[in-house]
Design brief:
homodimer, alpha+beta, Arc Repressor Mutant, subunit A, Beta-Lactamase, 2 domains, 6-stranded antiparallel β-sheet, two-stranded antiparallel sheet, DNA-binding
DNA sequence: TCGACAAAGTTCGTATTACGGAATAGCCTT
DNA sequence: AAGGCTATTCCGTAATACGAACTTTGTCGA
Protein backbone atom coordinates (compact mmCIF):
# COMPACT_ATOMS: atom_id res chain seq x y z
CA UNK A 1 0.00 0.00 0.00
CA UNK A 2 1.68 3.16 -1.20
CA UNK A 3 0.93 5.78 1.39
CA UNK A 4 0.77 8.95 -0.73
CA UNK A 5 -1.60 7.25 -3.16
CA UNK A 6 -3.86 6.12 -0.39
CA UNK A 7 -3.82 9.61 1.07
CA UNK A 8 -4.59 11.29 -2.20
CA UNK A 9 -7.67 9.12 -2.61
CA UNK A 10 -8.74 9.90 0.92
CA UNK A 11 -8.66 13.58 -0.05
CA UNK A 12 -10.56 12.94 -3.27
CA UNK A 13 -13.21 10.93 -1.47
CA UNK A 14 -13.64 13.65 1.11
CA UNK A 15 -13.94 16.22 -1.68
CA UNK A 16 -16.39 14.08 -3.61
CA UNK A 17 -18.80 14.23 -0.69
CA UNK A 18 -19.17 18.01 -0.78
CA UNK A 19 -19.36 20.78 -3.38
CA UNK A 20 -16.08 22.21 -2.08
CA UNK A 21 -13.80 21.73 0.89
CA UNK A 22 -11.32 23.82 2.83
CA UNK A 23 -7.93 22.57 3.92
CA UNK A 24 -9.06 22.50 7.55
CA UNK A 25 -12.14 20.39 6.82
CA UNK A 26 -10.23 17.97 4.63
CA UNK A 27 -7.44 17.66 7.17
CA UNK A 28 -9.99 16.96 9.88
CA UNK A 29 -11.85 14.33 7.93
CA UNK A 30 -8.78 12.51 6.66
CA UNK A 31 -6.81 12.86 9.92
CA UNK A 32 -3.85 14.17 7.94
CA UNK A 33 -1.67 17.12 8.94
CA UNK A 34 -2.50 20.32 7.13
CA UNK A 35 0.77 20.67 5.21
CA UNK A 36 0.26 17.19 3.84
CA UNK A 37 -3.24 18.08 2.71
CA UNK A 38 -1.94 21.20 1.02
CA UNK A 39 0.78 19.26 -0.73
CA UNK A 40 -1.61 16.58 -1.93
CA UNK A 41 -4.09 19.18 -3.13
CA UNK A 42 -1.34 20.92 -5.06
CA UNK A 43 -0.57 17.66 -6.78
CA UNK A 44 -4.21 17.00 -7.56
CA UNK A 45 -4.56 20.52 -8.96
CA UNK A 46 -1.45 20.06 -11.07
CA UNK A 47 -2.87 16.81 -12.41
CA UNK A 48 -6.14 18.57 -13.16
CA UNK A 49 -8.39 16.59 -10.83
CA UNK A 50 -8.99 19.44 -8.40
CA UNK A 51 -9.26 23.20 -8.58
CA UNK A 52 -8.62 25.92 -6.06
CA UNK A 53 -11.70 28.05 -5.75
CA UNK A 54 -10.41 30.65 -3.33
CA UNK A 55 -8.56 30.84 -0.08
CA UNK A 56 -11.71 30.62 2.00
CA UNK A 57 -13.87 28.39 -0.16
CA UNK A 58 -11.04 25.91 -0.61
CA UNK A 59 -10.94 23.32 -3.34
CA UNK A 60 -13.27 21.20 -5.40
CA UNK A 61 -12.93 18.30 -7.79
CA UNK A 62 -13.02 19.04 -11.49
CA UNK A 63 -14.92 17.15 -14.13
CA UNK A 64 -11.70 15.42 -15.08
CA UNK A 65 -12.68 12.70 -12.62
CA UNK A 66 -15.58 11.96 -14.97
CA UNK A 67 -12.95 10.85 -17.43
CA UNK A 68 -11.78 8.15 -15.05
CA UNK A 69 -15.29 6.78 -14.97
CA UNK A 70 -15.47 6.64 -18.75
CA UNK A 71 -14.57 2.97 -18.84
CA UNK A 72 -17.00 2.16 -16.09
CA UNK A 73 -19.77 3.51 -18.23
CA UNK A 74 -19.49 0.19 -19.93
CA UNK A 75 -22.10 -0.91 -17.45
CA UNK A 76 -24.40 1.65 -18.97
CA UNK A 77 -23.74 0.31 -22.42
CA UNK A 78 -24.63 -3.13 -21.21
CA UNK A 79 -27.87 -1.86 -19.75
CA UNK A 80 -28.69 0.04 -22.92
CA UNK A 81 -28.13 -3.08 -24.94
CA UNK A 82 -30.03 -5.30 -22.54
CA UNK A 83 -33.11 -3.23 -21.75
CA UNK A 84 -35.11 -3.76 -24.96
CA UNK A 85 -34.32 -7.48 -25.03
CA UNK A 86 -35.34 -7.85 -21.41
CA UNK A 87 -38.58 -5.98 -21.97
CA UNK A 88 -39.45 -8.21 -24.90
CA UNK A 89 -38.80 -11.29 -22.80
CA UNK A 90 -40.97 -10.07 -19.96
CA UNK A 91 -43.75 -9.09 -22.34
CA UNK A 92 -43.66 -12.54 -23.88
CA UNK A 93 -43.33 -14.74 -20.79
CA UNK A 94 -44.66 -12.48 -18.05
CA UNK A 95 -41.95 -13.05 -15.47
CA UNK A 96 -39.77 -10.12 -14.37
CA UNK A 97 -36.05 -10.05 -15.17
CA UNK A 98 -33.10 -8.61 -13.28
CA UNK A 99 -29.75 -7.60 -14.69
CA UNK A 100 -26.84 -7.60 -12.25
CA UNK A 101 -23.12 -6.98 -12.42
CA UNK A 102 -20.37 -7.95 -10.05
CA UNK A 103 -19.32 -5.20 -7.68
CA UNK A 104 -17.16 -5.79 -4.66
CA UNK A 105 -18.22 -9.17 -3.32
CA UNK A 106 -21.84 -8.95 -4.39
CA UNK A 107 -24.01 -8.59 -7.46
CA UNK A 108 -25.55 -5.17 -7.91
CA UNK A 109 -28.91 -4.98 -9.64
CA UNK A 110 -28.53 -2.56 -12.55
CA UNK A 111 -31.79 -2.96 -14.38
CA UNK A 112 -35.05 -4.77 -14.02
CA UNK A 113 -38.33 -5.27 -15.79
CA UNK A 114 -40.23 -5.81 -12.55
CA UNK A 115 -42.37 -2.73 -13.20
CA UNK A 116 -43.32 -4.08 -16.62
CA UNK A 117 -44.34 -7.46 -15.33
CA UNK A 118 -47.93 -8.38 -14.51
CA UNK A 119 -46.48 -10.75 -11.89
CA UNK A 120 -44.48 -7.98 -10.28
CA UNK A 121 -44.17 -9.04 -6.67
CA UNK A 122 -41.35 -6.78 -5.57
CA UNK A 123 -40.67 -3.10 -5.35
CA UNK A 124 -38.03 -1.67 -7.58
CA UNK A 125 -34.82 -3.30 -6.51
CA UNK A 126 -32.36 -1.14 -8.40
CA UNK A 127 -28.97 -0.87 -6.77
CA UNK A 128 -29.93 -3.66 -4.40
CA UNK A 129 -27.10 -6.07 -3.80
CA UNK A 130 -27.49 -9.83 -4.07
CA UNK A 131 -25.20 -12.28 -2.29
CA UNK A 132 -22.74 -14.07 -4.54
CA UNK A 133 -23.14 -17.50 -3.02
CA UNK A 134 -26.88 -17.85 -2.66
CA UNK A 135 -28.55 -15.73 -5.31
CA UNK A 136 -29.16 -16.96 -8.82
CA UNK A 137 -27.31 -13.94 -10.17
CA UNK A 138 -24.28 -14.53 -7.99
CA UNK A 139 -24.11 -18.27 -8.61
CA UNK A 140 -24.36 -17.76 -12.36
CA UNK A 141 -21.54 -15.27 -12.21
CA UNK A 142 -19.31 -17.47 -10.06
CA UNK A 143 -19.93 -20.50 -12.22
CA UNK A 144 -19.05 -18.85 -15.52
CA UNK A 145 -16.30 -16.39 -14.59
CA UNK A 146 -12.65 -17.40 -15.13
CA UNK A 147 -11.47 -19.97 -12.60
CA UNK A 148 -8.78 -17.70 -11.26
CA UNK A 149 -11.21 -14.90 -10.58
CA UNK A 150 -13.55 -17.34 -8.84
CA UNK A 151 -10.75 -18.54 -6.58
CA UNK A 152 -9.84 -14.95 -5.71
CA UNK A 153 -13.42 -13.98 -4.93
CA UNK A 154 -14.07 -17.05 -2.79
CA UNK A 155 -10.90 -16.37 -0.84
CA UNK A 156 -12.01 -12.79 -0.43
CA UNK A 157 -15.35 -14.00 0.90
CA UNK A 158 -13.55 -16.29 3.31
CA UNK A 159 -15.03 -19.41 1.72
CA UNK A 160 -13.00 -22.61 1.36
CA UNK A 161 -13.52 -23.95 -2.16
CA UNK A 162 -14.55 -27.55 -1.49
CA UNK A 163 -15.63 -30.38 -3.77
CA UNK A 164 -19.31 -29.78 -3.14
CA UNK A 165 -19.07 -26.18 -4.29
CA UNK A 166 -17.00 -27.16 -7.32
CA UNK A 167 -19.64 -29.75 -8.25
CA UNK A 168 -22.40 -27.17 -7.92
CA UNK A 169 -20.60 -24.82 -10.30
CA UNK A 170 -19.88 -27.64 -12.74
CA UNK A 171 -23.58 -28.49 -12.71
CA UNK A 172 -24.51 -24.88 -13.39
CA UNK A 173 -22.07 -24.75 -16.28
CA UNK A 174 -23.42 -27.90 -17.85
CA UNK A 175 -27.05 -26.88 -17.31
CA UNK A 176 -26.38 -23.34 -18.46
CA UNK A 177 -28.31 -21.78 -15.57
CA UNK A 178 -28.22 -21.36 -11.79
CA UNK A 179 -30.93 -21.28 -9.13
CA UNK A 180 -31.37 -19.29 -5.96
CA UNK A 181 -30.41 -21.25 -2.86
CA UNK A 182 -33.58 -20.81 -0.85
CA UNK A 183 -34.44 -21.33 2.76
CA UNK A 184 -37.37 -23.75 3.13
CA UNK A 185 -39.78 -20.92 3.68
CA UNK A 186 -38.74 -18.89 0.63
CA UNK A 187 -41.60 -18.08 -1.71
CA UNK A 188 -39.66 -16.47 -4.53
CA UNK A 189 -37.26 -18.37 -6.67
CA UNK A 190 -34.75 -17.16 -9.29
CA UNK A 191 -33.11 -18.74 -12.30
CA UNK A 192 -29.93 -17.03 -13.49
CA UNK A 193 -27.78 -17.09 -16.62
CA UNK A 194 -24.55 -15.33 -17.58
CA UNK A 195 -24.08 -12.75 -20.32
CA UNK A 196 -20.75 -13.79 -21.74
CA UNK A 197 -18.21 -12.34 -24.10
CA UNK A 198 -15.66 -15.07 -24.58
CA UNK A 199 -14.15 -15.77 -21.20
CA UNK A 200 -15.45 -12.63 -19.65
CA UNK A 201 -18.81 -12.43 -17.89
CA UNK A 202 -20.29 -9.00 -18.54
CA UNK A 203 -23.25 -9.47 -16.29
CA UNK A 204 -25.96 -11.90 -15.28
CA UNK A 205 -29.68 -12.13 -15.81
CA UNK A 206 -32.14 -13.56 -13.36
CA UNK A 207 -35.78 -14.38 -13.89
CA UNK A 208 -37.82 -14.43 -10.72
CA UNK A 209 -40.89 -16.57 -10.24
CA UNK A 210 -43.15 -17.82 -7.49
CA UNK A 211 -42.08 -21.17 -6.13
CA UNK A 212 -45.54 -22.58 -6.19
CA UNK A 213 -45.86 -21.89 -9.93
CA UNK A 214 -43.25 -24.43 -11.00
CA UNK A 215 -40.40 -26.60 -9.77
CA UNK A 216 -36.76 -25.89 -10.48
CA UNK A 217 -36.72 -28.64 -13.12
CA UNK A 218 -39.71 -27.21 -14.90
CA UNK A 219 -38.25 -23.73 -14.79
CA UNK A 220 -35.00 -24.99 -16.28
CA UNK A 221 -36.72 -26.94 -19.05
CA UNK A 222 -39.04 -24.13 -19.99
CA UNK A 223 -36.87 -21.04 -19.54
CA UNK A 224 -33.27 -22.22 -19.63
CA UNK A 225 -32.94 -22.03 -23.39
CA UNK A 226 -34.87 -18.76 -23.87
CA UNK A 227 -32.84 -17.11 -21.11
CA UNK A 228 -29.55 -18.19 -22.66
CA UNK A 229 -30.69 -17.01 -26.06
CA UNK A 230 -31.57 -13.69 -24.45
CA UNK A 231 -28.14 -13.46 -22.84
CA UNK A 232 -26.43 -14.23 -26.14
CA UNK A 233 -28.45 -11.58 -27.95
CA UNK A 234 -27.55 -8.99 -25.30
CA UNK A 235 -23.87 -9.95 -25.45
CA UNK A 236 -23.87 -9.55 -29.21
CA UNK A 237 -25.42 -6.08 -28.95
CA UNK A 238 -23.28 -4.91 -26.04
CA UNK A 239 -19.92 -5.07 -27.75
CA UNK A 240 -21.29 -3.82 -31.06
CA UNK B 1 4.00 17.23 -7.42
CA UNK B 2 3.99 14.01 -5.43
CA UNK B 3 5.38 11.39 -7.74
CA UNK B 4 3.49 8.26 -6.56
CA UNK B 5 0.20 10.12 -6.79
CA UNK B 6 0.94 11.32 -10.27
CA UNK B 7 1.91 7.79 -11.27
CA UNK B 8 -1.17 6.22 -9.80
CA UNK B 9 -3.35 8.54 -11.84
CA UNK B 10 -1.36 7.72 -14.94
CA UNK B 11 -2.26 4.08 -14.33
CA UNK B 12 -5.89 4.88 -13.71
CA UNK B 13 -6.12 6.98 -16.84
CA UNK B 14 -4.55 4.23 -18.88
CA UNK B 15 -7.01 1.76 -17.39
CA UNK B 16 -9.95 4.06 -17.98
CA UNK B 17 -9.27 3.98 -21.71
CA UNK B 18 -9.79 0.23 -22.00
CA UNK B 19 -12.05 -2.46 -20.51
CA UNK B 20 -9.01 -4.12 -18.92
CA UNK B 21 -5.23 -3.83 -19.08
CA UNK B 22 -2.24 -6.05 -18.46
CA UNK B 23 0.84 -5.00 -16.56
CA UNK B 24 2.89 -4.94 -19.75
CA UNK B 25 0.44 -2.68 -21.58
CA UNK B 26 0.11 -0.31 -18.66
CA UNK B 27 3.87 -0.19 -18.15
CA UNK B 28 4.36 0.56 -21.81
CA UNK B 29 1.79 3.32 -21.93
CA UNK B 30 2.89 5.02 -18.73
CA UNK B 31 6.62 4.50 -19.30
CA UNK B 32 6.96 3.08 -15.81
CA UNK B 33 8.97 0.00 -14.88
CA UNK B 34 6.86 -3.08 -14.42
CA UNK B 35 7.52 -3.57 -10.72
CA UNK B 36 6.31 -0.05 -10.11
CA UNK B 37 3.15 -0.72 -12.07
CA UNK B 38 2.51 -3.87 -10.05
CA UNK B 39 3.02 -2.02 -6.79
CA UNK B 40 0.69 0.80 -7.80
CA UNK B 41 -1.95 -1.64 -9.00
CA UNK B 42 -1.78 -3.46 -5.69
CA UNK B 43 -2.44 -0.23 -3.91
CA UNK B 44 -5.34 0.62 -6.21
CA UNK B 45 -6.81 -2.84 -5.65
CA UNK B 46 -6.42 -2.49 -1.91
CA UNK B 47 -8.20 0.84 -2.08
CA UNK B 48 -10.98 -0.75 -4.12
CA UNK B 49 -10.53 1.29 -7.29
CA UNK B 50 -9.18 -1.57 -9.37
CA UNK B 51 -9.63 -5.31 -9.54
CA UNK B 52 -7.42 -8.08 -10.79
CA UNK B 53 -9.32 -10.05 -13.38
CA UNK B 54 -6.76 -12.73 -14.10
CA UNK B 55 -3.13 -13.09 -14.92
CA UNK B 56 -3.60 -12.70 -18.64
CA UNK B 57 -6.50 -10.27 -18.73
CA UNK B 58 -4.84 -8.08 -16.14
CA UNK B 59 -6.71 -5.43 -14.19
CA UNK B 60 -9.72 -3.20 -14.59
CA UNK B 61 -11.19 -0.25 -12.76
CA UNK B 62 -14.11 -0.88 -10.48
CA UNK B 63 -17.29 1.11 -10.23
CA UNK B 64 -15.93 2.71 -7.08
CA UNK B 65 -14.50 5.41 -9.34
CA UNK B 66 -18.09 6.40 -10.07
CA UNK B 67 -18.28 7.43 -6.44
CA UNK B 68 -15.57 10.00 -6.99
CA UNK B 69 -17.62 11.54 -9.75
CA UNK B 70 -20.82 11.72 -7.75
CA UNK B 71 -20.17 15.25 -6.57
CA UNK B 72 -19.41 16.59 -10.00
CA UNK B 73 -22.48 18.20 -11.29
CA UNK B 74 -23.14 19.79 -14.57
CA UNK B 75 -22.47 23.15 -13.01
CA UNK B 76 -18.87 22.17 -12.46
CA UNK B 77 -18.43 21.26 -16.08
CA UNK B 78 -19.74 24.65 -17.05
CA UNK B 79 -17.34 26.36 -14.65
CA UNK B 80 -14.41 24.30 -15.84
CA UNK B 81 -15.21 25.25 -19.40
CA UNK B 82 -15.81 28.90 -18.56
CA UNK B 83 -12.97 29.69 -16.15
CA UNK B 84 -10.08 30.00 -18.61
CA UNK B 85 -12.17 32.04 -21.05
CA UNK B 86 -13.28 34.34 -18.30
CA UNK B 87 -9.73 34.84 -17.05
CA UNK B 88 -8.55 35.72 -20.52
CA UNK B 89 -11.33 38.26 -20.89
CA UNK B 90 -10.53 39.91 -17.57
CA UNK B 91 -6.83 39.98 -18.36
CA UNK B 92 -7.58 41.66 -21.66
CA UNK B 93 -10.23 44.19 -20.65
CA UNK B 94 -9.59 44.56 -16.94
CA UNK B 95 -13.19 44.34 -15.75
CA UNK B 96 -14.24 41.46 -13.49
CA UNK B 97 -16.69 38.83 -14.70
CA UNK B 98 -19.30 36.79 -12.85
CA UNK B 99 -20.79 33.48 -13.88
CA UNK B 100 -24.23 32.69 -12.50
CA UNK B 101 -26.76 29.93 -12.87
CA UNK B 102 -30.45 29.92 -12.05
CA UNK B 103 -31.29 28.45 -8.71
CA UNK B 104 -34.68 28.76 -7.10
CA UNK B 105 -35.87 32.25 -7.93
CA UNK B 106 -32.42 33.83 -8.06
CA UNK B 107 -29.13 33.64 -9.86
CA UNK B 108 -26.32 32.07 -7.84
CA UNK B 109 -22.80 33.28 -8.52
CA UNK B 110 -20.74 30.19 -9.34
CA UNK B 111 -17.48 31.71 -10.44
CA UNK B 112 -15.88 35.09 -10.75
CA UNK B 113 -12.67 36.70 -11.88
CA UNK B 114 -13.01 39.53 -9.34
CA UNK B 115 -9.80 38.52 -7.60
CA UNK B 116 -7.92 38.62 -10.89
CA UNK B 117 -9.17 42.05 -11.82
CA UNK B 118 -7.18 45.19 -11.13
CA UNK B 119 -10.54 46.97 -10.80
CA UNK B 120 -11.74 44.52 -8.20
CA UNK B 121 -14.10 46.50 -6.03
CA UNK B 122 -15.91 43.71 -4.23
CA UNK B 123 -15.06 40.93 -1.84
CA UNK B 124 -15.46 37.39 -2.96
CA UNK B 125 -19.02 37.04 -4.02
CA UNK B 126 -19.16 33.31 -4.54
CA UNK B 127 -22.50 31.72 -3.76
CA UNK B 128 -24.02 35.17 -3.50
CA UNK B 129 -27.47 35.31 -4.97
CA UNK B 130 -28.56 37.97 -7.43
CA UNK B 131 -32.19 38.94 -7.92
CA UNK B 132 -33.72 37.74 -11.16
CA UNK B 133 -35.57 40.94 -12.01
CA UNK B 134 -32.98 43.62 -11.32
CA UNK B 135 -29.54 42.09 -11.80
CA UNK B 136 -27.85 41.88 -15.17
CA UNK B 137 -27.41 38.13 -14.67
CA UNK B 138 -31.07 37.58 -13.87
CA UNK B 139 -32.40 39.78 -16.65
CA UNK B 140 -30.19 38.08 -19.20
CA UNK B 141 -31.45 34.72 -18.02
CA UNK B 142 -35.11 35.73 -18.07
CA UNK B 143 -34.82 37.32 -21.51
CA UNK B 144 -33.20 34.35 -23.21
CA UNK B 145 -34.80 31.38 -21.47
CA UNK B 146 -37.78 29.64 -23.15
CA UNK B 147 -40.98 31.70 -22.91
CA UNK B 148 -42.79 29.05 -20.95
CA UNK B 149 -40.07 28.91 -18.33
CA UNK B 150 -40.12 32.71 -18.05
CA UNK B 151 -43.87 32.75 -17.47
CA UNK B 152 -43.52 30.10 -14.76
CA UNK B 153 -40.72 31.90 -12.96
CA UNK B 154 -42.50 35.26 -13.06
CA UNK B 155 -45.64 33.69 -11.65
CA UNK B 156 -43.51 32.08 -8.98
CA UNK B 157 -42.04 35.48 -8.11
CA UNK B 158 -45.52 36.93 -7.92
CA UNK B 159 -44.89 39.29 -10.81
CA UNK B 160 -47.61 40.15 -13.34
CA UNK B 161 -46.07 39.94 -16.81
CA UNK B 162 -47.04 43.33 -18.29
CA UNK B 163 -46.25 44.99 -21.59
CA UNK B 164 -43.42 47.03 -20.12
CA UNK B 165 -41.59 43.96 -18.91
CA UNK B 166 -42.17 42.15 -22.20
CA UNK B 167 -40.72 45.13 -24.06
CA UNK B 168 -37.66 45.17 -21.78
CA UNK B 169 -36.98 41.50 -22.50
CA UNK B 170 -37.51 42.00 -26.24
CA UNK B 171 -35.01 44.84 -26.11
CA UNK B 172 -32.46 42.63 -24.28
CA UNK B 173 -32.92 39.89 -26.85
CA UNK B 174 -32.42 42.25 -29.77
CA UNK B 175 -29.41 43.95 -28.11
CA UNK B 176 -27.95 40.65 -26.99
CA UNK B 177 -27.24 41.93 -23.48
CA UNK B 178 -28.96 43.11 -20.29
CA UNK B 179 -28.13 45.79 -17.74
CA UNK B 180 -28.52 45.98 -14.00
CA UNK B 181 -31.56 48.00 -12.98
CA UNK B 182 -29.94 50.46 -10.60
CA UNK B 183 -31.24 52.76 -7.94
CA UNK B 184 -30.18 56.38 -8.58
CA UNK B 185 -27.39 56.08 -6.01
CA UNK B 186 -25.88 52.83 -7.36
CA UNK B 187 -22.20 53.06 -8.20
CA UNK B 188 -21.69 49.67 -9.76
CA UNK B 189 -23.26 48.61 -13.00
CA UNK B 190 -23.42 45.24 -14.71
CA UNK B 191 -23.88 44.06 -18.28
CA UNK B 192 -25.06 40.51 -18.71
CA UNK B 193 -25.23 37.94 -21.49
CA UNK B 194 -26.55 34.39 -21.71
CA UNK B 195 -24.53 31.23 -22.36
CA UNK B 196 -26.85 29.36 -24.65
CA UNK B 197 -27.10 25.90 -26.08
CA UNK B 198 -29.95 26.06 -28.55
CA UNK B 199 -33.05 26.97 -26.58
CA UNK B 200 -31.50 26.20 -23.26
CA UNK B 201 -29.68 28.81 -21.15
CA UNK B 202 -26.85 27.06 -19.30
CA UNK B 203 -25.85 30.12 -17.32
CA UNK B 204 -25.19 33.84 -17.59
CA UNK B 205 -22.15 36.07 -17.53
CA UNK B 206 -22.02 39.53 -16.09
CA UNK B 207 -19.27 42.11 -16.37
CA UNK B 208 -19.26 44.66 -13.61
CA UNK B 209 -18.00 48.19 -14.02
CA UNK B 210 -18.09 51.54 -12.26
CA UNK B 211 -20.95 53.69 -13.42
CA UNK B 212 -18.78 56.75 -13.76
CA UNK B 213 -16.46 54.96 -16.18
CA UNK B 214 -18.99 54.69 -18.99
CA UNK B 215 -22.64 54.92 -19.87
CA UNK B 216 -24.83 51.94 -20.62
CA UNK B 217 -24.72 52.73 -24.31
CA UNK B 218 -20.94 52.85 -24.34
CA UNK B 219 -20.71 49.60 -22.35
CA UNK B 220 -23.02 47.89 -24.83
CA UNK B 221 -21.16 49.15 -27.87
CA UNK B 222 -17.73 48.25 -26.50
CA UNK B 223 -18.39 45.04 -24.63
CA UNK B 224 -21.63 43.62 -26.04
CA UNK B 225 -19.95 41.76 -28.88
CA UNK B 226 -16.92 40.52 -26.93
CA UNK B 227 -19.15 39.25 -24.14
CA UNK B 228 -21.38 37.37 -26.55
CA UNK B 229 -18.35 35.89 -28.28
CA UNK B 230 -17.13 34.81 -24.86
CA UNK B 231 -20.48 33.20 -24.05
CA UNK B 232 -20.49 31.38 -27.37
CA UNK B 233 -16.98 30.07 -26.83
CA UNK B 234 -17.91 28.81 -23.38
CA UNK B 235 -21.06 27.18 -24.69
CA UNK B 236 -19.07 25.43 -27.38
CA UNK B 237 -16.58 24.12 -24.83
CA UNK B 238 -19.17 23.13 -22.23
CA UNK B 239 -20.92 20.52 -24.32
CA UNK B 240 -17.76 19.40 -26.09
C1' DT C 1 -9.16 52.51 8.79
C1' DC C 2 -6.90 49.63 11.78
C1' DG C 3 -5.73 45.64 14.55
C1' DA C 4 -6.36 41.04 16.19
C1' DC C 5 -7.45 36.64 14.94
C1' DA C 6 -7.72 32.49 12.14
C1' DA C 7 -6.66 29.74 8.51
C1' DA C 8 -3.81 28.87 4.41
C1' DG C 9 0.52 28.10 2.81
C1' DT C 10 5.90 27.59 3.01
C1' DT C 11 10.36 26.02 4.77
C1' DC C 12 13.70 22.68 5.83
C1' DG C 13 16.17 18.97 8.32
C1' DT C 14 15.13 14.16 8.84
C1' DA C 15 13.72 9.53 8.38
C1' DT C 16 10.82 7.07 5.97
C1' DT C 17 9.54 4.84 1.97
C1' DA C 18 9.13 4.31 -2.75
C1' DC C 19 12.26 2.87 -6.33
C1' DG C 20 13.79 -0.51 -9.83
C1' DG C 21 17.51 -4.05 -11.30
C1' DA C 22 17.97 -8.69 -10.52
C1' DA C 23 16.11 -12.98 -9.09
C1' DT C 24 12.06 -15.95 -8.78
C1' DA C 25 7.67 -17.95 -9.58
C1' DG C 26 3.80 -18.96 -12.47
C1' DC C 27 1.50 -20.01 -16.71
C1' DC C 28 1.06 -21.40 -21.57
C1' DT C 29 2.83 -23.44 -25.59
C1' DT C 30 5.04 -27.02 -28.12
C1' DA D 1 8.27 -32.32 -19.88
C1' DA D 2 10.81 -28.46 -21.08
C1' DG D 3 11.30 -23.92 -22.85
C1' DG D 4 9.95 -19.24 -23.15
C1' DC D 5 7.46 -15.45 -21.63
C1' DT D 6 5.42 -12.44 -18.25
C1' DA D 7 3.93 -11.29 -13.67
C1' DT D 8 5.59 -10.80 -9.20
C1' DT D 9 8.77 -10.54 -5.20
C1' DC D 10 13.28 -9.11 -3.03
C1' DC D 11 16.17 -5.89 -1.10
C1' DG D 12 19.95 -2.38 -0.90
C1' DT D 13 19.88 2.40 -1.98
C1' DA D 14 18.74 7.05 -2.65
C1' DA D 15 15.36 9.91 -3.44
C1' DT D 16 11.47 12.15 -1.55
C1' DA D 17 7.51 12.66 1.18
C1' DC D 18 6.91 14.02 5.90
C1' DG D 19 5.29 17.39 9.40
C1' DA D 20 6.68 20.75 13.38
C1' DA D 21 7.46 25.36 13.32
C1' DC D 22 7.08 29.48 10.98
C1' DT D 23 5.21 33.10 7.69
C1' DT D 24 1.70 35.02 5.01
C1' DT D 25 -2.83 36.39 3.84
C1' DG D 26 -7.39 37.50 4.24
C1' DT D 27 -11.60 38.41 7.48
C1' DC D 28 -14.18 40.49 10.75
C1' DG D 29 -15.15 43.58 14.47
C1' DA D 30 -14.64 48.19 16.41
Amino acid sequence: MIEPVSRSFAIMEALSRRPRGTVAVLAGETHLPRPTVVRLLKTLVELGYATRISREAGYRLTDKVLGLAQGIRFVDRLIDAAAPHMSRFTRRYGWPLYLGTISDRAMTIRHSTATESPMSFERTALQRRSPLLSSALGRAWLAFCPAEERRGVLRHLGVKPDAKLAAAFARIRSDGYAFTVLPRSGRLQGIGVAIRDGERVMGCLSMRFIRSAMTEDEAGRRYGAPLNALAAAIAADADR
